[in-house]
Design a protein that fits this description.
Layout: H1 2-30, H2 40-54, E1 57-70, E2 73-83, E3 89-99, E4 104-113
Antiparallel strand pairs: 1-2, 2-3, 3-4
Length: about 120
């Protein structure tokens, strides 16, 4: 009787290890790593430049989109919602024009809005 119980215990431990390994593989295989979106570096620049210009806190951030203006000029547009040191809140549209081949910034434009 002891051999049967001992063999069953070994079998149960082995099956438990297999089950745990299978579950770990299943869980880790469903996790996907997302790359940063293409506009992320331009968004970072938009936030930094807006903070410099307005000396304010960024409350919200939205990527509006990219426009290919010419083969050597693209534009990324963002809307940032900011709060000034005085407590005023307003929106700022930020347009960054750059050379898509070299990522050289050509201009940054700001436009305030109350919406």
């Amino acid at each position: 009787m002891g051999d049967i119980t001992e063999n069953f215990s070994r079998w149960a431990v082995i099956m438990q290890k297999i089950l745990i390994s299978f579950l770990a593989i299943l869980i880790f295989s469903t996790v996907t790593v997302e790359a940063a979106p293409e506009y992320a570096k331009w968004g970072k620049i938009a936030v930094e430049e807006t903070q410099k210009r307005y000396n304010a806190v960024i409350i919200d951030y939205k990527h509006i989109g990219r426009t290919e203006l010419t083969p050597k000029k693209s534009e990324e547009k963002f809307k940032l919602w900011i709060r000034s040191k005085a407590g005023n809140e307003f929106g700022v549209f930020v347009s960054i024009q750059f050379d898509p081949l070299t990522d050289t910034i050509q201009s940054i434009q700001f436009s305030e809005t109350n919406r």
